[in-house]
Write the structure tokens for this entry.
Amino acid sequence: MVERIDLRPVARASFRLVKKETPSVSSPPDELSFEDILARLSSVVDQLEQGDLPLERSLAFFEEGISLSRLGSRRLDQAEARIEQLMADEDGISTRPLPDEDTE
């Protein structure tokens, strides 16, 4: 006789791994804030660091992490470009050193 195994706890645990509090990477890029990207990326890293995922799940999380990392990098590049535009003057980019904490 074959022993029956109750898979409901496993299914619930798998659902918790997949459940996301932030928008998924498949959401349109303009729906993901930079903070959402960081939160989801942190969640992906946590899952991978546990080291108990099957290979295919690990690869899926890794792919999502790479995608999130690239999206976050693009967002930072866009922010940097906006800052450079705001700081531009007739002679080019205007920069100045940050004030020292000792002088304030």
